[in-house]
Each structure stands twice: as structure tokens, then as C-alpha cells.
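Example record for the data management plan.
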Amino acid sequence: MTDRSRECWRALFNLTDDFREQANASNLDSRTVFNVTVGQMRVLKAVASLSLDDTRGVMLKTLAEKVKLTSGAVSIIVDSLVRQGLLERRHSEVDRRAVNIVLSARGEEKIDSYITFFNRRTADFLAELTPEEVSAFISLLERFRAKINS
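Corresponding structural encoding:
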């Protein structure tokens, strides 16, 4: 690994950590403090996204496939989010043995507040750039993601 690639990864991870910490700090609930990790946020966002297609909830296996983690790892994350009151487990109306994962009302509030936070902070950053810089920035992010996924 080159020094430049180390520098790039360090900057990306620091950005992610700082974003998460600031989002957690700005989203403190007066009743309960929810500190959500990056992995937990991925699961919350995936449940929200998959629930748009099926309001009955998401099966654990489907959720694991969406976030590209094992069912065991997702189960641990879901357990934590259920304890925090952000997700709920509901038995399927069709098959009582099947359990669906759904966002709780507080989980929906959490997702909405994080999206608002990230959109506001990103808009603040982009407002300081020229239109050409914004285009170049987005293009570089897309090219980097494409390279990672190739």
C-alpha cells in the first residue's frame, strides 16, 4: 500500500467517523441516547429501503443479503437495535413461524433525523464549492466506488 492510498483511506475513515459522531451528537433524544454505529445505520437504512417495497417488514435473510453481511452478524445488530427501540420483530401474518423486521416509530424518526443531518452538512459543504468542483467531486466519488466494486 502506498503512502497516498493510506492517506486517502485515513481521510475517508476519519470523515465517516466524524460524520457519525456529529450525527449522534446532534440527534440526542431527550428520553434515551441512541449511539448508532455505522453497521447499525446500514441495517436501519436497509430496513427502511426494503420496507418501501413491503410494509410487512423484512426477513432477516433478505436484510443480510442487502447489507452484505452474514445472517448471524445481522441478527446481532438487529438484537441491539431492538433493545434500543429502533427496530421491532413482528410475526408474519401468513406464517407465524416467520419473523419480519420493521422500523419502530422511533427508528423512523432516527432515520429521518440522520438523513436531514447528512443532507444539511453535505449541502453546507457543497455550497462552498463552484459548480465545476461539485461535478468533479461527485465524479471522483462515483469513479472510486465503481473501482471498489469492480
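Summary line stored alongside the record: The CA atoms of residues 40 and 77 lie 6 Å apart.
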